[in-house]
Amino acid sequence: xxxxxxxxxxxxxxxxxxxxxxxxxxxxxxxxxxAEDRAGFALEAPAGQTALYAPVRDAAEAALRxxxxxxRASVVLTAEAAPAPRRTASLSPxxxxxxxxxxxxxxxxxxxxxxxxxxxxxxxxxxxxxVAVNLAAALAARGLLVGVLDADVYGPSLPTMLGLSGQPAxxxxxxxxxxxxxxxAMSVGLLTKADDAMIWRGPMASQAITQMLSxxxxxxxxxxxxxxxxxxxxxxxxxxxxxxxxxxLDGAVIVTTPQEVALAxxxxxxxxxxxxxxxxxxxxxxxxxxxxxxxxxxxxxxxxSIPFLGDLPLEVALRQAGDAGRPLAIADPDGEIxxxxxxxxxxxxxxxxx
Length: 354
Ligand SMILES: Nc1ncnc2c1ncn2[C@@H]1O[C@H](COP(=O)(O)OP(=O)(O)OP(=O)(O)O)[C@@H](O)[C@H]1O
Ligand SMILES: [Mg+2]
Hints:
36% helix; Rossmann fold; binds magnesium ion; GMP Synthetase, Chain A, domain 3
């Protein structure tokens, strides 16, 4: 087991170009994770300085790998939020004196995003990411401006499913999202250099996701994003709870397969959302049909008194489209699968008041 102190000492031998201090001393090591043979952290560059810090990230990663016992290392480069414009400067002294100066708008919601929708599942592998991208496409087909955030730290799949690659660009301290099939897209998988995203644990994961939410230029004042679809990691553990608590969600859809084990996990996911006051907009049954059964999610939704949003058959074209980076709802817009996603999208638009 590698000691944290060893890791911090190694990181202190990498010099911060601005302060001239070691990275740990300079306070740039955020959300450090040291577990078994893995180490990683988020390197927070000052606003607008990410280009300067890319080589520092590489040096820090090399320093971690050089530690005996560390075989996997990842350093995620994130940017500090650009300082907010000083609103009070434009107010007349009289207005300030009268106490009418407005408090700054809380920044926990991503700017210029009207609604944030989570796609969740209790159990992994049930088709959450497939639903997230196809639902996003179906929402976009209604003329909405849609973004997708892949917050699945255990197995980011948006890069594959939407055919994304390359680290995002930074502009004025903001992350510029990729655009794929008309959707704005960001993934934790694009912030790491290697396929190391799965080494992330609680603090680093929530730090990176909070930053991707709040620092990505999802929309602008003129053209706000209508809805941001967030693909959450599967499960109902601490990472999920932290994420759900930190993410300003307007609603969640829960994906499940028809089997009882998956339904039990879907139930737990619903309970988790209830605990934090996020409305579950409904259940979706995926891989429905002769292999896994059918109707379980409808019955579960009735038991939980939440809407049942529809089912999707086990359909090889759905997997192939995902593997090819082109969601089926886009590749075959007149097909049966697209029609089902369009119907779910209609219910979501209504529930979110879009
Ligand atoms: N209805 C379906 N018919 C056929 N294949 C499907 C269907 N839904 C999903 N798949 C395939 O099943 C696999 C798992 O789906 P997906 O990655 O969407 O699940 P997930 O819940 O996001 O998994 P993870 O927990 O790993 O994030 C993928 O290969 C996907 O293409
Ligand atoms: Mg997934």
